[in-house]
Amino acid sequence: MQLFSSLVEDDYVSISMNEESQTGPNTERIDDFQDDQKISQKDLLDLASEYIDSISEELRPVSLRIHDNPELNYGEFIAHETLVKFMKSRKGWKVTPSAYGIATAFIAEFDSGKKGPVISYNAEYDALKGIGHSCGHNLIAICSVGAALAASAAIKNFSLPGKVILFGTPAEEGGGGKIKLLKAGAYSDHKADINLISHPGIVPASALVRTNAYMNFRVEYFGKEAHAAASPWEGINALDALITAYNALSVLRQQTMPGDIIQGHITDGGAAPNIIHAYAAGIFVVRSLSKSRLEMLRKRVNNCFEAGAEATGAKLKMTEVMAYDDHVPNKVLGVICRKAFNQLGREEIPTTELDLIRGATQASTDQGNISYMMPSLSLGFKIESQDGPHNPGFAAAARTRKAHDAALKAAKALAVTGLEVLLDERVLVAAKEEFKEMLEGRGR
Ligand SMILES: [Zn+2]
Ligand SMILES: [Zn+2]
What we know:
Blueprint: H1 2-9, H2 11-18, H3 27-32, H4 41-68, H5 77-88, E1 93-96, E2 106-111, E3 118-123, H6 137-158, E4 163-168, H7 177-184, H8 186-189, E5 194-201, E6 213-222, H9 238-253, E7 261-269, E8 279-288, H10 291-312, E9 315-324, H11 331-343, H12 352-358, H13 367-371, E10 376-382, H14 392-397, H15 401-423, H16 425-439
Parallel strand pairs: 3-4, 3-5, 5-10
Antiparallel strand pairs: 1-2, 2-4, 6-8, 6-9, 7-8
Helix pairs in contact: 4-6, 4-15, 6-15, 9-10, 11-15, 15-16
């Protein structure tokens, strides 16, 4: 069997053996896996490739319709309608539009009828204000649709067990659509065992994309008005509190670890120079390499804001706006995905150790929150563009035929990654074991 012989050869095994804990997937256990599967990864890849190529011309108008109608932050009505209509037209798929009370979220489900793992894919389709689909989410949408449909085709062809779920997840660009769906119980209700997604970029492909943890919060200080010349001692200066905190943050910045980022801007700086400022406010963002490191950074940042309150007597209020966890890729799934991707030619994803370096980015995504709930992958694929994401040039690139083909190549690799989980239950056991270790703070 291809899969486990490939795992034995793979760097993933040596990585797990080098970690402090030896309780994870290890060579001994993996060596026990026998070459006992009748269906090989090549069989799955051939079928997924053939199937995805056969629907390429149906996926192209879906991608273009989303691209040509850029919609923002829970307002993705055209994208939602287009994708729902498309999934409803596929045989064997049950589609729930406006799922969990979110108008532009949807869930499409394919059940093999045989008990088994539940593999899931996330489709994104939101755009950016003023610069259209400059994050290429139209490509993410068709990649996940293609992968999910190819997986269902292979289930039928090879009589595999389990289910495939496609989650339509709106508002990735700051609205946290996946977090809303997680909180509403969408992933747990459907018993999703793993979740897969992709993202286009201009850097070389990576099966192990890692993103930063991110937190965005509003800070307010409440003071007391007084005549700023005649009786300033009667007032409490909220702006002074905020400036004191801002200066303390500027000092803290020099003492933080690489990858820790603190950003902020003042939205309210008082009413007039001759009134002691009774109200001051701002929006602040902190980022770090991981969720746990972000929590440590946030404590130190909070101390700065409390220092402002302490120094002036103003009352402090902090309100969280949005928090995205870092994305932790599952290496077991990454090995399978990489092997499938590399068999499709053109460019090579390197082995796990190198790919973990290649896949690191300072950007953030709500797929990060998914990666703390179940084994997850975000396959980064390269499209040809002079400009990177969040630039209008990248939006133009995301509309080209070449970018379409790149997205479908990613879809083939993601289809096979999910199918391997359905084919051999030991894959899921190994992926979940790694996931558990990650949650316990080991194996990272
Ligand atoms: Zn983006
Ligand atoms: Zn994006």
